[in-house]
Description:
Layout: H1 3-24, H2 31-55, H3 61-85, H4 90-119, H5 129-154, H6 162-191
Helix pairs in contact: 1-2, 1-3, 2-5, 3-4, 3-5, 4-6, 5-6
Amino acid sequence: MNTPNKLTVARIIATPFFMAAMLLAYKFNWLYIVALVLFIGASLTDMIDGKMARKYNLVTDFGKFLDPLADKMLTTAAYLGFISMYGTNPTYRWQVTAIAFIVLFREFMVSSIRLVVVSSGGKVIAANIWGKSKTVSQMIGIILALAAYAAMYVCDCLAKYQNIFDIVIMVFFWISAVLCVISGVIYLNGSKQYINSSK
């Protein structure tokens, strides 16, 4: 359990607290600030652990497997929180639900393929540039959304721009959903040599 892996585990531990803040923010708006701080902190551990692992040659199969899993937990918690947040807004509720489905479908598929590859004697496949772009776009969109709602709590004068904020947020969310599909297809294509339905 080296330092990068400890940071990854810390990100996993922070996820339930982030989720709780998201679910309760509708009642206690100041929790948007807490959720924002937790998400930014968790996102920073994702950036730091990867750089540290590569710089100090601390890359492990455990880290390759756990790091994207921690990302999935964090981003999934965020999208589920946004489904709850937009629960009374039919225009955005269906969009966030569809995006969450795309994200979960892709993540379950990739995680399953990763297990198949390992059980077939292959190595754990690290995230490619498309996968990393997907994660970065998700984190930017989520941080933007949380920052917008935290700002509206801090300054009531921004509430009149909520619809504009929501439109921008949805654009970022859909961009990340498209990158989810692209990265998932590329991952599937790169792993097809290990998939044998006869076994």
